[in-house]
Write a structure and sequence with these properties.
alpha/beta; Rossmann fold; 8-stranded mixed β-sheet; 8 helices; 8 strands; 23% strand; binds S-adenosylmethionine
Length: 230
C-alpha cells in the first residue's frame, strides 16, 4: 500500500521482470545450471535448524526454490514477491511437486503485511539489492517486526567487499569479470541496481535490530549473513 508521496514504489520492479510462466520456467532452469540451488537451500535449512512445523518466510522468493525446499522439509513456508508471475509459477510447482501449501503474499519488503512476531525465521536471496540503501533499512525493520524474539534471518545478496587499497571501480570490474558467461547481466546489475558495500549492509542490519551471528563470502561479491533478532 502506498501511504505517502515519498514512498518508494517497489511494485515498479515488476516491469523489469518476467511476464510469463514460461519465461520464469526458463529462468528457473538457467539458475539450476548456474548455481547449486539445492545445496544452497540445504545449507540454509541446516543453518536455521528449525523444528518441524516452524514458520519461515522467504522474501523476494522468485521461483520459490527455498520456500519449496522448506515446505518439503516439513516447515510452514510463506513466500513473498512483487512479481505475480513468479508466484503463479511457485503455486504450479507446489502442485506438481505435491508439497504442503505455501502461503503467498503478492507484495515486497516494504509492503508485505504480517502480524508482529509471526515467523521463526526469514530468508532473502538476491532480492534486497532492488532497493536503495535508505529503503533497505525500512525493509530490514519490516522483516525484524515479522520475526519472533530471537528469530533468525539469513540474508544472501550481492555485497561489495573492497580489498585492501582497492578502488570501487576495480571491485566492480572484479565482480563482473568473475562471471564471464553472464557478463552483460552482471554489468547491468552494477550499473542499474542498488547493491551496496559490506560496511553499509552490516550497519543497516544492526540498525534494524539484528545481531550478525555469522557472515561469509559466497563467491565473488556475494555475502551471506546469518542474523538473529536482538
Ligand atoms: C534475482 S531474483 C532472486 C530470486 C530468489 N530469491 C533466488 O535466490 O533465486 C530477485 C527477486 O526479487 C523480486 N523483487 C524485486 N523487488 C522486490 C521487492 N521490493 N520486494 C520483494 N521482492 C522483490 C523479483 O521479483 C525477483 O523474483
Amino acid at each position: 500500500m502506498i501511504t505517502s508521496d515519498w514512498q518508494w514504489n517497489e511494485m515498479q520492479q515488476v516491469g523489469t521482470d518476467y511476464n510469463s510462466v514460461e519465461e520464469v520456467a526458463a529462468y528457473d532452469r538457467r539458475m539450476g545450471e548456474f548455481r547449486d540451488v539445492t545445496r544452497e537451500n540445504a545449507e540454509m535449512l541446516g543453518m536455521l535448524d528449525l523444528a518441524p512445523g516452524a514458520a519461515v518466510l522467504e522474501i523476494g522468493c522468485g521461483t520459490g526454490r527455498f520456500a519449496r525446499a522448506a515446505a518439503a522439509a516439513g516447515l510452514r513456508a510463506t513466500a513473498v514477491d512483487v512479481s505475480a508471475t513468479m508466484l503463479v509459477y511457485v503455486r504450479q510447482c507446489v502442485q506438481e511437486e505435491g508439497l504442503s501449501e505455501i502461503a503467498m503474499q503478492h507484495a515486497g519488503f516494504l509492503t508485505m503485511e504480517f502480524p508482529p512476531e509471526s515467523f521463526d525465521a526469514a530468508v532473502s536471496g538476491a532480492a534486497l539489492h532492488h532497493l536503495p540503501d535508505a529503503w533497505k533499512l525500512v525493509a530490514l525493520r519490516n522483516i525484524a517486526r515479522a520475526l519472533k524474539p530471537g528469530g533468525q534471518f539469513i540474508l544472501r545478496d550481492v555485497v561489495f567487499v573492497l580489498r585492501e587499497g582497492e578502488s570501487p571501480e576495480a571491485c566492480f570490474e572484479r565482480f563482473v569479470a568473475s562471471l564471464p558467461s553472464v557478463r552483460v547481466e552482471v554489468a547491468c546489475h552494477v550499473a542499474q541496481e542498488f547493491s551496496t558495500y559490506d560496511w553499509i549492509m552490516e550497519g543497516l542490519l544492526v540498525r534494524a535490530g539484528f545481531n550478525i551471528a555469522a557472515k561469509q563470502g559466497v563467491g565473488e561479491s556475494f555475502m551471506e549473513y546469518h542474523c538473529r533478532k536482538g
